[in-house]
Amino acid sequence: MNDLMQHSPLGTYYEHCKKGELAYQVCSDDNTPVFFPRAVAPRTGSANLEWRVSKGLGTVYATTVVHYKNEAPLNVALIDVDEGFRLMSRVEDIDPMQVKIGMRVKVRMHPGDEKLPLYPVFSPLLSEEGSPRGGGGGGEAAQNHPGPASHPSLGRRGR
Questions:
Q1: pTM for this model (two decimals)
Q2: Is residue 140 in a domain?
């Protein structure tokens, strides 16, 4: 089983995570980003996938707060990563109720334990860090995903 994990797309992904990198694949047939790691591209069925490392910057696309009995609330968010893929994660280092759609975030790896490997979570960026004016962000995600203003939950407020 360990040998399979070392040579599988998931094993490659976790090796990048151990180095603090958010890795993703790109289908070389149509240049489409692929995340979560796969053996074939979902859109084309092609096995022509190459690994790339994200800069780790993104934008909150959607967020909610989960309240468990006898535990502190935590947020769950969909993050549009600048390289053009979306993933579910959390935004930490901030009150869960303060996470907002459109907020710029940066990835870091949450340490795992014996049951769960490390995984990506996000932290809010400072105002200039990672903003389109600050030189990071806007990238391919802006072309592949609608912006927060078109999110259905915003109704007329986002228009």
A1: 0.73
A2: yes
